[in-house]
């Protein structure tokens, strides 16, 4: 189980791909770009989890309201009706990709509609932007942002400690935030709109994982790591008097204010030599519980203790469930049962082998029991059963020897929470998933409690490469960080296992033979063992190849169009080629080490390479390469290129940097010359999919900046015109690693993300209408007059609902025979609902009546096509659906 998270975005950052710029996170408005519009539905290719979940937060006053934070993949809200997680931060755009790292979450117990997220991925130079606190009044459906004058580290060492962000449970306009990097303690008194440093807080922290690390990653001061209010010391509407703050300082870990933050002092008598990962307060019994570790986590930790502080008397008690001498791990995850506050649980977060450990006490830490123990070594007795049938890959295909088991109870278990309204429900995060149980109290009765994944909807993989074969059982093949990759035969189902034999920790590249797609190759990283593998059955089964001398990492690989040979550019040595399945490799000549390699999709002996602004071509199966005379290509190595299926020598190249050549290039002569597309500002990926109806050229897809707008774009006319197919609510941070269309389904596109898994889009235009000729982009009149010259149909769907609020999607279809040049859809709410924010349309509301009008880029709706918009709203009592919709003066069919 890999102990680091993949840093895909960092590679792009160091190459200068990412630029700073403004981002409006409030319910998005339409992009100001004169491009054709299409309506896409976006989903995840299901993997379920796949990354570290360092924080789970339950609201203390509303049942079933819970949130989860991830280190690189954003924030999520629990949906009780479906037992799934809903992503909340997909609106984070390219220029602020760092805001997909969530260092802390806080749910307001006074007003449960309010939730806050402290965001930012790295505190060192890898992230060019500062951190921010996002605030939402509709449970994360939309956000507003308060920028901070320092960085936050959602993917930095110490990210499992917390929560660093907290809302005063008595006066909810007051919030505190613990900052890293010596920036101290911060406070907001206006519900997160503005922030200022608490000037008199006495300690900014001094602990760094590795002070000698010159990158700034491990050497950063982990700072202020948690804030806890003692709600019993305040009254409704008045600031809580007593506040505890945890500091990354082994000698001075806990501070307190008893005057609502006016003054602060070190808590006397506290233990030293350890870091307090959390501070959990039982106000009923006047106890503050603190799990300690000798390291900041989430991977490291060799010794630990548990302590209880009596807030009324100032007495400290060591309540460690095992003697310090017997620990080889630190403690971090800690929770109490709010229904039975004397019940406490804690985790041995850094116990990697043979398993993590959960401890439980029902007498405030006086005595403890373990989730598992030895009967006689190495035989284990478990108080739990595990069922991972919903995510079977969590076994990692392992068959370990006792006392290790598969699946594991977990690792990196820094988040652990008992539902404050349900003593039987507990959730905890691991390095790969969220586990949970709904019969936890079986532990106390002596019977086994059941653990299963509670992670559906939470997708947290970093995607490095994608391939969609034209035939065979595999719909999609993915190369992923940390868990290798998967073969999807059904995008709506979790695959049974990641790639194995061998099981790379990270797969860096994969390719299939275009005319023989049963043959697939992949390369990746592995601590020991081969770095290349092959399949002859479309990726269902694999066997290892042989590494040439010097290989240290995966690099990129290309398969000949017929599968007869391969060219591999691994890390650690130069480009290699082989006939057959890589049992013997030979060094390629004429191409530098580290080049990106791809194959021609027609000629089995033609391969291509790119390195440092130069394009290389081989016509002898990779034995020798010759540098092309092409000039004007990006000077750096942040480039992705692909050859078009079915046409020899047709190559598209995307990439570059803001301080040099940046865009999309096309070659029709095998890379001898390239032409830069003048209508593409910047491009970072390129992929191909099934051609539109009537077109002879495959559909192009790219993650790019076109017309001044960043997004995912599609062209059905060889790049002459482009359609933005995502919207501002679906941006997913950084999408620059890979993209591919589906060769079997027109309009379907697969998009890589750095922490939100594989996202795929389906076009509402299933027919793939449109031909090959470029069509001028319609320019709407300044104030278009709505027309309703054809029939219409409306689908109104409430996608999420909570106390006092909801989110809905509306799809308007043109079921007539003529196109619309503008549209205005009206309806009346039956129960007094009001729209709070609406995106992909403009709206007005008067009483119950609402009218939604097109924006400039989605005014034109062809016959047989549709357009969609969404909104958040408020309700009370009943949230009934509108019974009728009108387009102008015509009634629409209601689906």
UniProtKB/TrEMBL annotation:
The keyword Signal applies. Keywords: Carbohydrate metabolism, Cellulose degradation, Glycosidase, Hydrolase, Polysaccharide degradation, Signal. Residues 1-26 form the signal peptide. Residues 761-788 are annotated as: Disordered. Residues 785-895 form the CBM2 domain. GO terms for molecular function: hydrolase activity, hydrolyzing O-glycosyl compounds; polysaccharide binding. Residues 775-785 have a biased composition (Pro residues). One of its GO terms (biological process) is cellulose catabolic process. It holds the Pfam family CBM_2. SUPFAM superfamilies: Carbohydrate-binding domain, Oligoxyloglucan reducing end-specific cellobiohydrolase. Belongs to the glycosyl hydrolase 74 family. This is Xyloglucanase. It comes from Streptomyces sp. SID12501. The lineage of its organism: Bacteria, Bacillati, Actinomycetota, Actinomycetes, Kitasatosporales.
């Amino acid at each position: 189980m890999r102990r680091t998270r993949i840093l895909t975005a960092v590679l792009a950052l160091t190459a200068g791909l990412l630029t700073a710029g403004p981002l409006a996170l409030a319910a998005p408005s339409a992009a100001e770009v004169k491009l054709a519009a299409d309506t896409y539905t976006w989903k995840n290719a299901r993997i379920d989890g796949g990354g570290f979940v360092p924080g789970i937060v339950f609201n203390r006053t509303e049942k079933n309201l819970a949130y989860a934070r991830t280190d690189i993949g954003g924030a999520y809200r629990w949906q009780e009706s479906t037992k799934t997680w809903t992503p909340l931060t997909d609106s984070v755009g390219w220029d602020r990709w760092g805001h997909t790292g969530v260092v802390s979450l806080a749910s307001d117990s006074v007003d449960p509609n309010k939730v806050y997220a402290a965001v930012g991925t790295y505190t060192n130079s890898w992230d060019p932007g500062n951190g921010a606190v996002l605030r939402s009044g509709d449970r994360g459906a939309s956000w507003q942002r308060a920028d901070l004058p320092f960085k936050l580290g959602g993917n930095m060492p110490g990210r499992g400690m917390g929560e660093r962000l907290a809302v005063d449970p008595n006066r909810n306009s007051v919030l505190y935030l613990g900052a890293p990097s010596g920036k101290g303690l911060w406070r907001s008194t206006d519900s997160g709109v503005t922030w200022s440093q608490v000037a008199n807080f006495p300690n900014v922290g001094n602990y760094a994982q590795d002070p000698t690390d010159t990158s700034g990653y491990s050497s950063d001061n982990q700072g202020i790591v948690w804030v806890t209010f003692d709600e019993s010391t305040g009254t409704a509407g008045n600031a809580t008097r007593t506040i505890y703050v945890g500091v990354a300082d082994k000698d001075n870990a806990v501070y307190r204010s008893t005057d609502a933050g006016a003054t602060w002092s070190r808590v006397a008598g506290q233990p030293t030599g350890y870091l307090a990962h959390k501070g959990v307060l039982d106000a009923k019994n006047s106890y503050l519980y603190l799990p300690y570790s000798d390291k900041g986590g989430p991977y490291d930790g060799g010794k630990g203790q548990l302590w209880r502080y009596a807030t009324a008397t100032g007495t400290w008690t060591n309540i460690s469930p095992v003697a310090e001498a017997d620990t080889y791990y630190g403690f971090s995850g800690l929770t109490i049962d709010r229904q039975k506050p004397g019940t406490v649980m804690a985790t041995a977060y850094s116990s990697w082998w043979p398993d993590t450990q959960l401890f439980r006490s029902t007498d405030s830490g006086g005595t403890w029991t373990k989730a598992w123990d030895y009967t006689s070594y190495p035989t284990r007795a478990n108080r739990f059963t595990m069922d991972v049938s919903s995510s079977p890959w969590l076994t990692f295909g392992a068959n370990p020897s006792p006392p290790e088991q598969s699946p594991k109870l977990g690792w990196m278990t820094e988040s652990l929470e008992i539902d404050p309204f349900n003593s039987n429900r507990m959730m905890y995060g691991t390095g790969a998933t969220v586990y949970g149980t709904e019969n936890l109290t079986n532990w106390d009765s002596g019977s086994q409690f059941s653990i299963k994944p509670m992670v559906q909807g939470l997708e947290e993989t970093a995607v490095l490469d994608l391939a969609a074969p034209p035939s065979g059982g595999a719909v999609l093949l993915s190369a992923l960080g940390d868990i290798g990759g998967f073969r999807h035969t059904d995008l709506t189902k979790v695959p049974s296992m990641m790639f194995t034999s061998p099981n790379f920790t990270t797969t860096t590249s994969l390719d299939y033979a275009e005319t023989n797609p049963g043959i697939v190759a992949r390369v990746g990283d592995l601590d020991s063992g081969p770095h290349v593998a092959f399949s002859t059955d479309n990726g269902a089964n694999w066997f290892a190849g042989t590494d040439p001398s010097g290989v240290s990492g995966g690099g990129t690989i290309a398969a000949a169009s017929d599968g007869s040979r391969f060219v591999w550019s691994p890390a650690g040595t130069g480009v290699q080629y082989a006939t057959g399945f890589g049992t013997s490799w030979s060094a390629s000549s004429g191409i530098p080490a580290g080049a990106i390699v791809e194959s021609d999709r027609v000629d089995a002996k033609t391969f291509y390479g790119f390195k440092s602004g130069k394009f290389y071509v081989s016509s002898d199966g990779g034995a020798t390469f010759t540098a092309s005379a092409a000039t004007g290509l990006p000077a750096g190595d942040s480039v992705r290129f692909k050859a078009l299926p079915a046409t020899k020598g047709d190559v598209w190249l995307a990439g570059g940097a803001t301080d040099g050549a940046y865009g999309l290039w096309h070659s029709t002569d095998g890379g001898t010359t390239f032409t830069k597309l003048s209508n593409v500002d910047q491009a970072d990926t390129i992929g191909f999919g099934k051609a539109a109806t009537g077109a002879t050229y495959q559909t192009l897809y790219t993650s790019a900046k076109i017309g001044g707008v960043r997004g995912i774009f599609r062209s059905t006319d060889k790049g002459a015109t482009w359609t933005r197919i995502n919207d501002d609510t679906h941006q997913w941070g950084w999408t620059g690693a890979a993209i591919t269309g589906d060769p079997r389904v027109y309009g379907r596109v697969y998009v890589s993300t750095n922490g939100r898994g594989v996202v795929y889009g389906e076009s509402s235009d299933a027919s793939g209408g449109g031909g090959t000729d470029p069509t001028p982009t319609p320019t709407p009149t300044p104030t278009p007059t709505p027309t309703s010259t054809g029939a219409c149909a409306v689908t109104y769907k409430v996608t999420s609902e909570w106390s006092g609020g909801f989110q809905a999607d509306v799809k308007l279809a043109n079921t007539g025979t003529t196109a619309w040049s503008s549209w205005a859809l009206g309806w009346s709410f039956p129960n007094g609902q009001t729209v709070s924010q609406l995106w992909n349309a403009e709206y007005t509301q008067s009483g119950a009546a609402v009218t939604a009008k097109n924006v400039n880029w989605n005014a034109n709706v062809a016959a047989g096509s549709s357009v969609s918009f969404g909104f958040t709203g408020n309700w009370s009592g009943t949230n009934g659906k509108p019974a009728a919709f009108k387009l102008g003066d015509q009634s629409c069919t209601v689906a």
